Structure prediction request, 72 residues.
Amino acid sequence: MNVDRMPDGSARCFTSIGCYPLFYVTKSVCLCPACALSREAEVEAGDCNWEDPDLTCDDCGERIESAYAEEP
Ligand SMILES: [Zn+2]
Prediction:
């Protein structure tokens, strides 16, 4: 599936409406938007991370922000 892009061609990290953090999954791994872009052929789904504070990208190890589980 296609990874959502910004007008400059980089991966969109937040939804355009509501600004919710995005992540992507392949058959076996969870990816941040930037890594999903480089493995786009493998990406099977994308979603918003609503409330998982421990979600990390399996490629680069970056933590993927959550919409509701951030520390205040
Ligand atoms: Zn990554």
